[in-house]
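ENCODED BACKBONE
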Amino acid sequence: MNIIDKLYDRVEKRGVVCVGLDTAIDYVPDHIKEGRSISEAIFEFNKQIIDATYDVSACFKVQIAYYEALGLEGLNAYKKTLDYLRSKDEIIIADIKRGDIAATAKMYAKAHLEGDFEADFVTLSPYMGMDSIEPYMPYFENGKKGAFVLVRTSNPGADDIECLDVTTGKKVFEVVADKLSEMSKECIGECGYAPVGGVIGCTHVEEGKKIRESYNNMFFLIPGYGAQGGTAEDVALYLKDGNGGVVNSSRGILLAYKKVGKPEEFAACAREEAIKMRDAIREAVKR
């Protein structure tokens, strides 16, 4: 099955939640850290989060920076987390945001789409040009792997570059999205979407409807929900019939236990938060 068809099917069955495993060691409750190495503690925390949320989420996004920052201990936890997700047939987005060209890009693709750090999707930055995406295309053309490319991100500074006007009368982010759509038009899955999707933040609600209509075959990875101010109603603008995207939440789910002061129940709290988020977005789509 084409990986984008698999993701589309997961959204249909489980909802749009993407659980972000951006796991800092400070997020891990003391009772999990006790008697364990950093690597073991992070993996055990992630494992319990995965076990508690996999049936109510479409996929998992693992942000590599949190693991790289801890050196080999962190990368070991990263690999074990990926291995565990794969053993459960979960869809993995490796949030690596690579953006180099030529042979270097080929090595990044090899590193994160096969081997020890294999994922189903990677995140990429296009701002060196489309030749920073092209080395990954052989993985996408057969439908086995995919990517989410930075298009219209949720951070306040995104306007510094993404919203600059170009000579065609479009914004930079629109030119990027147009080029991605053209590059991936030959590998559209049965669901109507291409495996080369866009990172589209839900914090620019005035643009949401236009972006969804303009890029009808582009599947979105949607950050900005919760901690960055995005609401279920905002997210609904970027979806099509409740699908066509996944909505990431990291701290909101991982740290849900801190709202109620129950570190021993962190996994159960994460599940409750994921369900609450899923249901809120479903209701907003209906409205």
Notes: The radius of gyration is 18 Å. DSSP finds 13 helices and eight strands in the chain. The chain has a mean pLDDT of 94.
